[in-house]
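ok new one. same drill as before - structure tokens go in, u give me an amino acid for every spot. 348 of them this time. try not to just spam alanines like last time pls lmao
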């Protein structure tokens, strides 16, 4: 595992954000003035940073695709440990001044900062992933029906369990992660009566490490497995790596999240234990916003990914999942029901 967290060391002067960003594309800029030429898009990472094999890495894939297609030299900035909204504001302002467009906050924690900075830079398009509270002419709220993909994950878990006990590990006890848990639980219960769903949230706040602590995820999964769970679904960012590690150690199934974790290089030694992943197309949302700016028609308002439009899905990379007729039939039936409106998935 590459690291527990790549969060920058606490105490770094806020002023440093005005002159330093870590490049994710082929180069970066240190100019503090606006540029006539669009340098590309800029990502401000959520907790866990690049290398989480999940949420942030999906955003990075969207950046990389835009760079390759449009010849950009985009950039991405890691979060600081214990940073304030003021730190986020200064980071986004710096990126806008330097000439990046769009500027995307990767995670709901950026909402106050995006709202403030977007008002100061009306000619720059801003995006925020997983928040739909900002209503501005130059902001795109990139959100998803996570509960729909999680419902399908619950269907798969119910069909795969032999112990009739499954687990859900949420990174932080917040409404966004409740959507994952609610969808998963409903999918399990609608598919197989009598299956117990063990639920645990790692922390109350992101600052406590719920999205960035594989050890916390591993400990939670160990507890659920000890209690009989033979399928464990994690919606916990970097912490989910610990859940997958525990599942592999005990030879039970893990279900990944956000990205297709079966195909993540950092998780290759555990891939045999990853049944499937409940994915949301953060990569596509980031790329599409960058393309809209490049084409001169910036996306704004709420942009929501669903099963219907391919914004969320269930991966089928693991042959044991893809070739299991019982699971595939159940998942297909559930997906058709959601798309047709005969199944309404709960969000809490």
């Amino acid at each position: 595992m590459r690291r527990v967290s790549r969060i920058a060391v606490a105490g770094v002067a806020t002023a440093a954000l005005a002159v330093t960003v870590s490049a994710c594309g082929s180069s970066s800029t240190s100019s503090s003035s606006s540029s006539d030429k669009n340098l590309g898009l800029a990502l401000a990472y959520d907790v866990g940073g690049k290398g989480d094999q999940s949420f942030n890495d999906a955003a990075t894939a969207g950046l990389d695709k835009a760079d390759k297609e449009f010849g950009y030299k985009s950039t991405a900035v890691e979060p600081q440990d214990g940073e304030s909204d003021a730190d986020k504001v200064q980071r986004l302002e710096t990126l806008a001044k330097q000439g990046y467009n769009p500027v995307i906050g990767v995670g709901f924690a950026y909402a106050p900062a995006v709202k403030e900075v977007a008002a100061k830079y009306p000619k720059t398009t801003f995006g925020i992933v997983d928040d739909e509270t900002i209503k501005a002419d130059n902001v795109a709220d990139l959100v998803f029906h996570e509960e729909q993909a999680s419902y399908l994950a619950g269907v798969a878990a119910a069909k795969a369990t032999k112990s009739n006990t499954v687990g859900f590990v949420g990174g932080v006890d917040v409404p966004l992660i409740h959507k994952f848990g609610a969808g998963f639980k409903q999918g399990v219960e609608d598919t197989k009566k009598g299956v117990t769903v063990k639920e645990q949230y790692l922390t109350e706040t992101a600052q406590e490490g719920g999205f960035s602590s594989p050890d916390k995820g591993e400990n939670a999964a160990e507890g659920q497995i000890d209690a009989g769970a033979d399928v464990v679904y994690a919606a916990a960012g970097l912490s989910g790596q610990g859940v997958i590690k525990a599942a592999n150690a005990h030879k039970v199934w893990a279900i990944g999240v956000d990205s297709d974790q079966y195909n993540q290089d950092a998780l290759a030694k555990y891939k045999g234990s990853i049944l499937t992943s409940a994915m949301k197309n953060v990569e596509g949302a980031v790329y599409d916003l960058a393309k809209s700016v490049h084409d001169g028609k910036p996306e704004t308002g709420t942009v929501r990914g669903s099963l219907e439009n391919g914004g969320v899905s269930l991966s089928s990379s693991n042959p044991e999942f893809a070739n299991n007729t019982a699971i595939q039939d159940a998942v297909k039936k559930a997906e058709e029901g959601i798309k047709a409106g005969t199944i309404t998935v709960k969000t809490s």
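Residues 337 and 343 are 5 Å apart (CA to CA). and btw The chain has a mean pLDDT of 89.
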